[in-house]
User: Which sequence fits this backbone?
């Protein structure tokens, strides 16, 4: 399976979000590290799935998009 290569762009940096989520669940330090590593490894696969799902959706033209977002 081909996975998306993720660069170090801040837009694609989910580390803080992942940590905040796990810290809010009161995981122990060991659990936090383990779950954090698991989640980071799953991000490229999640992007691939999201991309494939988006490709299946019909393409919108400008007028359809404006209507969809209420412009």
Assistant:
């Amino acid at each position: 399976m081909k996975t998306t290569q993720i660069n170090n762009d801040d837009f694609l940096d989910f580390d803080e979000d992942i940590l905040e989520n796990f810290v809010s669940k009161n995981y122990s330090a060991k659990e936090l590290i383990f779950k954090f590593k698991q989640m980071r490894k799953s991000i490229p696969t999640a992007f691939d799935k999201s991309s494939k799902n988006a490709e299946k959706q019909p393409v919108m033209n400008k007028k359809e998009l404006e209507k969809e977002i209420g412009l």
About this structure: The radius of gyration is 17 Å.
